[in-house]
C-alpha cells in the first residue's frame, strides 16, 4: 500500500521556528455559523531561525477575511492564502504586527477541534493542532506568547464567557443584546493551551488559599441544574492543589482556576491554562448515576489536568515528539496523588492491569512505538498508552533508581531551570543527572526503544553452601522499525520468602538499601549467602519495571507467595500468574489437572478466609481473574477467543463453587447500610461484595440470578445497581431482558448512564450481540456525532467483547470497518481511535486473521480517508519487517 512519505514528520528534522510571536490579541465574536476572529500577532524574526525566511502560518479549513501588516492592509499579491496556510514571502526582518481576520463555523465543526458547539455552548479544543482552525498561526508548541482574548456573544445565548488567565474586563456592547469579557493570561504559552468557552452554565466554586497565602477562586461549570453533581470534582481539585504544594512544592499561579464540563469531547479532558475543559463523564457524579470507578476516574483526571499546570504548561514541550515529557510525567504525578489519597497497593495493581491491557498490548502489535517516537504522520494518533502509561513507568523507575529525595531535588531543578520554556526529554534527564552525578544515558534508552522487555529468572539453591543464586536474562522482541534491541536498565525490587512464611536472613551486596537490584546487562546473577532453606524469590515487587517476567516458580511456590509475601502487589501477582497458567493451558488444549485447579481454588479460599475483610478492595482484585484479552495476549499467536472464553468461564465456575460459602457470607455481610460515600474504603467493600456476587453467579445460576435481582431492585447507588445488572447480563433469557428494559426506563434521561447501558449490551459474549449493537445504533439516545455514545457502544463492542468482535465469520471486523468509515467523515480522531481495536489482529488464528485483513483493506482502499485513519490502517497492515 502507498504511504505518503511526504507527510511524515521526523524528530531529526526539528529546527527552531524562523519567527517568534511574543503577544497575541484575539477578538472573538461568537456566532453559531459565522464566528469572527481577529488576531493581532506581535511577531519578530527568531535569532535562532533562518534569516530571510518566509513567514508561513498554519491554517486548517479557515476562511480568510483580511490581512493587515503594521497597519497597512496587505494587497493580495503580497501573500498567499489557502484554508491550510497563509504565507508572506517577504516579511519584515524586524518586529512587526500582523492582524488577520478569519471566519469560522462552530456549528459545522464536527471534528471537535478548534471552536465548536456542544449542547448549544461554545467551546474549544486546540491540542495538538486545533488552534490553526481558529486563526492562522505558528501552531507549534515551541512558540510561546502572552494572550489577551476578548470574547463577545449574545447575552441570551452565552451569558457565561470564559478564557485563559484572569478576567480583566467585562461589559455590554452598547445598543445590542451582546456582551463581552476580556481575559488576560500573563504566562507565555503555546497555542495548544488556548481555550475559550461561551454558554449557559451553572457554577460551583470556592476560594483556595495557596501555600504562599494567595487567594484563588476555583470553580467547576456544568449544565445548569447539574451543579450538585460537580461537588466531587471541585473537592478533587482542591485536594489536588494542596497535594501538589505538599508533595512537589508546586503552587498555582493565577487568580482563578476554572473547569468546564462539556458533553461532546474527543478525549477525557484538556489542561488549557487556567481553563480546563472536560468531558462531562469525568466531572459529573452523584451516587445514583456514577459508580465508584467513575468517582476514582474523576479524581484522577481532575488531578492530572491540574498537575499539567506545571508539568506541561509552565514547562511545555519543544515539539510533539516530546509529548511524554508532559504526559508520562503527569500520569506519574496523578498516580502518586491517587495512591496517597486512596490505597497504594490497590492503586498500583489497578495501574499495572491497565498498563498490561493497553500498553503491553500496543507494544506487542503493529502499532508499537517508542515512548518518544522518532516520526509521525498524524500526531493525534500518538496520544497512546505507550506515551502516557509507559512514559509514567519510566519516571517511576527513575525515582526507584535514584531514591525519593534525589527525585524530588531533580524535579525541583527541572521546574526551576525549564520554567517558561519548551523543553525536551534531555532537559528532564539532565536535571536528575546533575543532582545525582549519575550518567543516565543508558537509562534514556527507555525513551527510544519500543517493545516490552522480557526478564527470565532462574533460581539455584545450594544447601551445603547455604547459597542461593538468581540468574537473570533480558531480551526485547523486534518492533516495527526496530529489529535489534539493546539491554535496558531494569530496576528489580526483590526479596526472598520462605515457603513456610518464616523470615529469611540472607545477604546480597548488590541489592541496595531499598531492596532494588539494577539489571542493566543482557544477563547477570545475584548470589545470596547464609540462606538456610530453599527460598521463593519475590521479584519485581510493586512492579518495579514495565517488563514481562518469566519465573521458574512452581504453582506451589507462587501460592506460598500469595500467602506470605510482604509485598501486596506480588501477593496479587502470584494468584494471577497461577490463574493465567491454568487459563492458557485450558485455552490451548493443555487442560490443567483437577489438582491444579483445586490448589488455586483452595489457596484463594484460605486467603479470603484469613484476610479478605482486612482489605476488601485488595481481596476483590485477587478474586478477579485475568481477562479474556489478557489471556489472548499471553498466548500471543493463533488465538482462539472462543476457547479462552470457555476456559475462563469454567475456571470461574470452579472457584465460585469452592469458595461459595465465603462469597455468600461477603455478599450478605458487606451489604450497604448507611448512606453512600465514594471513599476508597467504602468502595473497597462494595468491590468485594460485587466480586463475590459475580463469582457466585458463575457457579450457581439460580442463586446468582436471585441475588442479582434483589440487589438490582434494592440498590441505593449506581455501583451496586450496575454490578447486579452486569451479573444478570451473563444469564441469557428473560431475566436479562427484563433488567435491560428496566434500567433503560430508570435512566432514560441520563446520557452518561445510558452509556453504561450501551456498553453492557455491546459486551454480551454471545451470538446476537452484533445485531443488538446494530439495533442500538437506532436508539434515540445514540448519536454518531457524540464521542461518548460511539465509544460506549461501538468502542466497547470492539475493544471489550473479545468473542463477538473476533467472530470466526469476520462479521465483527466488517462491522467495525464500516463504522470507522462512517465516523471518519464526521470526526477523524474518533474514527482512528476505534480503528485501533484492530491492533490485535495478527495474534488471532488464521481464519480470523484473514477476515481482519480483508476488513482492514476495505478501509485502506477507500478514497479520501482522513490522515488519522489512513495512518492507523497503514501501520496496522504493514508487514513487521522490523527494519
Ligand atoms: N493533553 C490532553 C490530550 C490532548 C489530546 C489531543 N489529541 C489531555 C491530557 O492528557 O491531559
Ligand atoms: Zn495529560
What's the structural blueprint in terms of helices and strands?
Layout (H helix, E strand, L loop, with lengths): L8 E2 L8 E11 L5 E11 L9 E4 L4 E7 L2 E2 L6 E3 L2 E4 L7 E9 L9 E5 L2 E5 L19 E10 L5 E4 L2 E7 L5 E12 L6 E4 L2 E8 L5 E8 L8 H18 L7 E7 L6 E2 L4 E5 L12 H16 L8 E2 L5 H19 L2 H20 L11 E2 L8 H18 L1 H15 L3 E2 L1 H12 L8 H4 L5 E9 L4 E9 L14 E9 L17 E4 L3 E7 L5 E5 L8 E4 L3 H10 L3 H20 L6 H18 L4 H8 L4 H8 L5 H18 L1 H10 L10 H20 L1 H14 L3 H12 L4 H14 L3 H12 L6 H8 L10 H14 L1 H4 L5 H14 L3 H8 L10 H15 L6 H11 L6
Parallel strand pairs: 2-12, 18-19, 19-21, 22-24, 25-31
Antiparallel strand pairs: 1-23, 2-3, 3-9, 4-8, 5-6, 5-9, 7-8, 10-11, 12-15, 13-16, 14-15, 17-18, 20-21, 25-26, 26-29, 27-28, 27-30
Helix pairs in contact: 1-2, 2-3, 3-4, 3-5, 4-5, 5-6, 6-7, 9-10, 9-11, 10-11, 10-14, 11-14, 12-16, 13-14, 14-16, 15-16, 16-17, 16-18, 17-18, 19-20, 20-22, 24-25, 24-26, 25-27, 26-27
The site of (3S)-3,7-diaminoheptanoic acid has 12 residues, from strand 20 and helix 2.
Report on the architecture of this protein:
The protein is of the alpha+beta class. The protein folds into three domains: 9-307, Sandwich (Immunoglobulin-like); 317-552, Neutral Protease Domain 2 (Neutral Protease, domain 2, Orthogonal Bundle); 579-877, Peptidase M1, alanyl aminopeptidase, C-terminal domain (Zincin-like fold). It is built from 27 helices and 31 strands. The strands form nine sheets. Strands 6-5-9-3-2-12-15-14 form an eight-stranded mixed β-sheet, with no helix packed on it. Strands 17-18-19-21-20 form a five-stranded mixed β-sheet, covered by helices on one side. Helix 1 (231-248) links the parallel strand 18 (215-222) and strand 19. Helix 3 packs across helix 5, helix 9 runs antiparallel to helix 10 (568-587) and helix 24 (811-824) packs antiparallel against helix 25. The radius of gyration is 28 Å and the shape is globular. (3S)-3,7-diaminoheptanoic acid binds next to strand 20 and helix 2.
